[in-house]
Amino acid sequence: MGLLSTIFGILCGFLNSIFSLFAFGIGTSIGLVIGYYAFINALPADVEDVKVCPLVEDDLETLQRLIPEIPLWVKNPDFDRVDWLNKFIENMWPYLDRAICATTKNIAKPIINEQTPQYKIQSVEFETFTLGTIPPTFQGMKVYTTDDKELIMEPSIKWAGNPNIIIAVTAYGLKATIQVLDLQVFGIPRITLKPLVGIFPCFANIFVSLMNKPHVDFGLKLLGVDLMAIPGLYRFVQELIKDQVANMYLWPQALEVQIMDPEQALKRPLGILDVTVVRAVKLQRKDLLGKSDPYVKLNIREEKVAFKKTTVKRSNLNPEWNEEFSFVIKDPATQVLELRVYDWDQVGTHEEMGLNVVPLKDLTPDEPKVLTLVLLKTLNPNDPQNDKPRGQLVIELVYKPFKEDEMLDDIDDSGMMEKAPEGTPAGGGLLVIIVHEAQDLEGKYHTNPHVRLLFKGEERKTKRIKKNRDPRWDEEFQFRLEERPANDRLHVEVYSTSSRIGLLHSKESLGHVSINLVDVVHNRRVNEKYQLIDSRNGRVQIELQWRT
């Protein structure tokens, strides 16, 4: 994508100059076109046909010219011959073409949207995108073995393809088409798969580096005019692309593509932690009337899972809950259970009343343990604020490790996943989005929240809940997709609207978040609370399911 970003930057700069010329006068542009055609017509027409001559062993000069074209597996014993791979790609190329083009467009769109404002371009659209009928050829491949959990490959790639990429660019009210064709790419990338894990596809990340500056050559047409025929521009563009790509991806620098969370991939669930929040005693008074509205939040620290919380007990300094929760445990030796008690408020931020933690290493497997935790201000043992009494929290814990025959690579504590309905495309599935709730929303003028989902140009909305900082919707939305959304993002916006007539600020944003869908594709289900951007404490809980 670094190459695509560089090409796009060059095109945008060139288009900006062209459109500026139109703003100053048509005459200059016409003069450039006339000069171009005069240059083309001035080229000699007496081009000789290519001659085919036999190769003689004594002809050292010809042999030296042919050396760069000889496959690396012939010249270098470290490179293996991969004819089988070339045959596979040749047969699969029509399908790889469609898949690569679709993925490239999905990755390119956010890059283009980020770059266009600085060039004052209104829109950039792909009118045609195909890599052509000629697949790349692997001249050989070198594979390294190391002591680390990784696989390193260095394929020698040569591709002289016939792609046809037509991009429509609109700026200053004018539309121009740019065509990229006759692309040639020669290079030796280093592809590293690491760490290797026991969960399909058996590696967590892909790292791509270039071992030397690549050779890149292509044709470029603007409004049907071959720009690469303009004197001086061809060499300038080639050198610029080589330098830019080398600056970003020349080894040891690398392009990293995350397939799955490596920390989670390397850890298998080892057991279940059952937590019962029994009661709290002698809590602090936080409300004006001398009472508090406490509730408890629980989570496993440093785990990317949603907080779990008890119900709110109104006007009670000695609340009884007896509510049960369960957590999947992957590393009982290091993981810690964190508990925080809050005072619920209708307006403003919920105030924390105290906290404490329980290291799971202190628990004996399969043995229930009742703990009375002293609530602290901070976890710093030397903090003098912890000397002030804040109350106590009584909990019951039991850690249940899995037996060897019960070990699973993945645990879904929500039950069996439903399947996609009949008629769903074989390569696709059903993306289910459940908007559960939001917390600590704070509007400047009003707080009547609803959630808007934006995905692949489609918009869905939840109902509006009036005057609520902690709304709960539990609304489900479904998108039937032709292919896996591994490279897509879901945009979530929380808005507050008011129906009062004449109100100056009838609509305001309470925060937003963009969710990468790669996790739900690999894990089948994700249920998390996301911190809202442009919100002080706001969070929204979204459950995602990928059904096939």
Automatic annotation (TrEMBL):
Its main location: membrane. It comes from the Eukaryota. It is a single-pass membrane protein. Its cofactor is Ca(2+). It holds the Pfam family SMP_LBD. It is found in: Membrane. GO terms for cellular component: endoplasmic reticulum; membrane. InterPro entries: C2_dom, C2_domain_sf, SMP_LBD, Synaptotagmin_plant, Synaptotagmin_SMP. Keywords: Calcium, Lipid transport, Lipid-binding, Membrane, Metal-binding, Repeat, Transmembrane, Transmembrane helix, Transport. The keyword Transmembrane helix applies. One of its GO terms (biological process) is lipid transport. One of its GO terms (molecular function) is lipid binding. The keyword Methyltransferase does not apply. Belongs to the synaptotagmin family. This is Extended synaptotagmin-2. It comes from Gossypium arboreum (Tree cotton).
